[in-house]
Amino acid sequence: MDPLETLKSYTRHASVSTDPSYAGGMQGAREFATKLLEQLGFSVEVVDTALHPILYAERIRNPEWPHVVLYGHYDVQPADPFKLWTSDPFEPEVRDGRIYGRGTADNKGPTVVHMSALSRVLEQFPDLPLNLSYVIEGEEEIGSPSMEKFFDSHGERLSKADFLLVSDTGSPNAEQIVVTTAIRGLVDLEIQLKGANVDLHSGIHGGAVYNPIQALTEICASLHNPDGSVNVPGFYDNVFPVHDWEREQLKQYPETEESYRKMLGVRGFFPANGLSPLEAVRYGPTLEFNGIGGGYQGEGSKTVIPSEAFAKITCRLVANQDPATIQNAVVEAIEARCPDELELSIRKGGTGEPYMVVPPGRPGASDDQPASLVRAFKSAESSIAEVFGKPPLFLREGGSIPVIADFKNRAGLDSMMIGLFTPLDNLHAPDESFDLSIMKNAITAFEKIIKDIAGV
Amino acid sequence: MDPLETLKSYTRHASVSTDPSYAGGMQGAREFATKLLEQLGFSVEVVDTALHPILYAERIRNPEWPHVVLYGHYDVQPADPFKLWTSDPFEPEVRDGRIYGRGTADNKGPTVVHMSALSRVLEQFPDLPLNLSYVIEGEEEIGSPSMEKFFDSHGERLSKADFLLVSDTGSPNAEQIVVTTAIRGLVDLEIQLKGANVDLHSGIHGGAVYNPIQALTEICASLHNPDGSVNVPGFYDNVFPVHDWEREQLKQYPETEESYRKMLGVRGFFPANGLSPLEAVRYGPTLEFNGIGGGYQGEGSKTVIPSEAFAKITCRLVANQDPATIQNAVVEAIEARCPDELELSIRKGGTGEPYMVVPPGRPGASDDQPASLVRAFKSAESSIAEVFGKPPLFLREGGSIPVIADFKNRAGLDSMMIGLFTPLDNLHAPDESFDLSIMKNAITAFEKIIKDIAGV
User: Fold this and answer.
1) H/E element holding A230?
2) Is 90 exceeded by the pLDDT of residue B1?
3) Exposure of B93 by Cβ count < 10 A (0-12 exposed, 13-18 middle, 19+ buried)?
4) CATH code 3.30.70.360 region(s) in chain A
5) B291 interaction partners in chain A (CB closer than 8 Å)
6) What is the mean pLDDT of residues A422-451?
7) Please, which residues have CB within 8 angstroms of residue B83's CB and are 6 or more apart in sequence?
8) Predicted local confidence at residue B34, as pLDDT
9) Across the interface, do B221 and A224 touch by the CB < 8 Å criterion?
10) Per-residue pLDDT reduced to its tens digit, B300-331
């Protein structure tokens, strides 16, 4: 297969999962991916969901062979605003070593990389001793709402595999590939405080009542200590420690504190618990205020005591932290700190498990990692070093990919996440693109990795 | 003059100052008030302003006589939403002892009360030994923006008078009249904190930076002590003390803490500095959060670290507190408490002076009150007792009427504020009305008060 032409064709199917008017593009992308899988010798099942079907494909020959599951998604983000694109987001164009188009990087490019590598390997080894499954969903960009039911129906079959191979994470640049070893979990909650029935005149009634904004800021301010650490009992109890080798890996990351500070445009950093800023976003849990509101927010002033005020909070959790336990601990702390004069409501939002795989051979690694996963990590290190010129860095990441934790918790599969995006790719933004040098090198590297997993 | 018919005619002039489409109503009301004043023997000057002219009228006969200035406003609030009115807001209708219409209470009814009383007195004493001035402005409902220039041009003439007579405040019901002895001052400011250049992904960057909402809540929370008092150095330095007689007056106020609590719909009160809730809104200064905002405020969650967050703050000040000093003290406290990692901007908004007149003979009263003001307060007490059946209560109020402080500061005039509104009047709301029994009794009481001031 011609990787570039394949990616161009795949990208032309405008598969925007959130917008019903793109149903044709969704169907086209699904059929295109199905055809690619069939050409590679997979039997493809189109698994119906409430919205966009999931492709489940298998190429299973011998239960004794190692078994790898590959994950991807055929849906893309909306392309609006169209006028900010240099070329049509759904008519891909190559400029200066990059292919531009919605989904070229997220996640169609990496999917084509995997398939191209697999195609090359299978040309050389038609009887490759490796069982393979594919899960390509169509709702990743809207939060993977159908994956839970998919694990109900397919979890057991998936659990017979050894591990998951994913390329839906990032690397700092085209020379330095990152293998992501962990993603943070998530806890969502919202607090609302109510005082009087209606907004009150702050002259007529000011001084008698507890202003809900005042109480809200007091509660919110209590949730961190002066050093920036989270002030909720038990919050740090089970935090997975930072190992020296992780700090060492991070030191090789091609970003300095100063370049990071300038990129964000902040005056200074405020990491907690003795972590550096670059460590804190990867290795530490957080309690973050995502939004706050109450009272008058227009121009100038309006002399009211608002009836209500609210704050939106999410926590990012690191490995070993239990989202439900943390959510309850935060809720209990808030309840305990809310003054009696106000009515408190708390919306407990969703939670997502953190996930971590310590690379085989590193301190803290699990003893019972499948031999194929051990080979895969070893090969990733040497193959990427050989092709890209530098070994990959094994780093935890700060974001959350709930489906990765689900593969672990619902099917027992660890993930090897090899990042093919870079910050230049403009994911989710106009002029999304995929680096053709990464594409070319990654196909070669994955060709080696697949062979090493199969032992050929 | 027939008070009810006069008020009906005055109300029919739809004098909404904020809406240019009511220019005809503004002019009609101005001309109507001018005619009334001329009929009472005043010479009327229509003082041009940038928007709505001010009526300045004089009936000055002998510099030896006492001299009273009466203040009112001929503009009204908008009547929208019209569909919530039982009858046309600008076609007044009498129902169940009340006259309904926009402006019947605020402030046309009280103006007609004053003029009707004056008319009766002048019928009996055409050569009444009392100099009188009138200031009737047309921009009270939009914040009296032209009064400053008016004091530039007319302050000196006004300063020759003895005091100001105003009925633009409230009483609890038709039996219990309140003479308002003080109004609170106002300080306005807004703080904004800026962190990163743009909203950041809370997964990718969470843990490295100081969330502006977090810092904002910490600063805001620091502005009160746990007991609810304001935690700003010097805030209470010059606060006019609460005298025992003021507490005694308030005990006779026909409202209990429990009825007040139920009316507001709060679970409990939170007054500071040992004041009761009913005392705190009158006798204590406040620092109140009127609005707060930052980050995502829509449904559900969005995992951002916002770039910015803001809070709107106003302080209500009691007598002797200097607005500029307090504003600076709050600004300095905020600046001192803002972490270095964030960029702080503070908008210093407007300020308004507090105002207080201690009724003659009460502890704390000024020694140099004009004899006419002493007679006025004495007569108000006895005349209102005689007509309404109960003596008035002399109470400070929590709201702010900047023009009252301006009459003091720009022309040296104290104010006797006799409240003719009640909470049933629906000021600024649909179905505004004025109580006809208050109207009738107040005319009789003011007739006596004017005679007593003149000594006839």
Assistant:
1) none
2) no
3) middle
4) 185-239+285-352
5) 213, 294-297, 302, 304, 306
6) 96
7) none
8) 98
9) no
10) 988 999 999 999 999 999 999 999 999 999 99
Please say whether the beta carbons of A164 and A416 come within 8 A. yes
Structure ipTM: 0.93
Q: How many helices (H) and strands (E) does chain A have?
A: 12, 18
- Give the type of residue at A449: I
Compute the average pLDDT of residues A23-28: 98
CB within 8 Å: B293 and A290:
no
Q: How far apart are CA B303 and CA B310, in angstroms?
A: 19
Cβ B389 vs Cβ B135: under 8 Å = no
Q: Is the dihedral of CA A409, A410, A414, A415 positive or negative?
A: negative
Q: Which of B265, B143, B363 is nearest to A300 (CA)?
A: B143
Measured distance between the N- and C-terminal CA atoms of chain B, rounded to whole angstroms: 21
Burial code (b: 16+ CB inside 10 Å, e: under 16) for A90-110 equals bebbeeeebbbbbbbbbbbbb
Q: CA B375, CA B420: separation in Å to the nearest integer?
A: 20
Query: Of A422, A415, A185, which is closest to residue A284 (Cα–Cα)?
Result: A185
Q: Indicate the pairing of strand A67-73 with strand A131-137.
A: parallel
A233: number of Cβ within 10 Å: 11
Q: Give the residue from A414, A450, A412 showing the smallest Cα distance to A160.
A: A412
CB A324 within 8 A of CB A189: no
Cα–Cα separations (whole angstroms), residue B228 to A65, A210, B345: 70, 8, 26
Please tell me if residue B304 touches chain A, with a CB cutoff of 8 Å.
Answer: yes
Could you tell me which residues are beta bridge partners of residue B134? B57, B70
Q: B 330-369 residues with CB below 8 A of A?
A: 339-343, 349-350
Cα distance from A130 to chain B (closest Cα, Å)?
35
Q: Report the SS3 class of residue B222.
A: coil
Determine the Cα–Cα distance for residues B155 and B408; give it in Å rounded to an integer.
Answer: 10
Q: Is B226 exposed, middle or buried (0-12, 13-18, 19+ CB in 10 A)?
A: exposed
- H helices then E strands: how many in chain B? 12, 18
Closest CA to A296 of A194, A196, A202: A202
Answer yes or no: is pLDDT of A402 > 90: no
Task: Tell me the three state secondary structure of residue B415.
Answer: strand
The token pair at A295 is 């009272």
Q: What is the torsional sign of CA A271, A277, A279, A284? A: positive
Phi, psi (5° rounding) for residue A257? -55, -40
Looking at chain A, which residues constitute the CATH 3.40.630.10 domain(s)?
3-183+355-454
Percent of residues in chain B assigned helix, strand, coil, to nearest 5? 35, 25, 40
Chain B residue whose CA is closest to A297: B291
> Identity (one letter) of the amino acid at A72?
G
Give the three-class secondary structure for A338: coil
Q: Give the closest-approach CA distance of B422 to chain A in angstroms.
A: 13
Chain B CB contacts of A314 under 8 Å are 202, 301, 303
CATH superfamily of A3-183+355-454: Zn peptidases (3.40.630.10)
Q: For B128-160, how does the pLDDT look when each residue is reduced to its tens digit (9 = 90+)? A: 999 999 999 999 999 899 999 999 999 999 999
Residue carrying the six token digits 């009383």: B117
Beta-carbon separation of A291 and B306 below 8 A: yes
Distance of CA A131 to CAs A109, A161, A279, B207, Å?
Answer: 23, 8, 37, 41
CATH class belonging to A185-239+285-352: alpha beta
Tell me whether residues B214 and A224 touch, CB distance under 8 A: yes
Helices (H), B265-304: 277-283
DSSP string computed for B313-347: EEEEE-TT--HHHHHHHHHHHHHHHS-TTSEEEEE
Q: What percent of chain A has pLDDT over 90?
A: 97
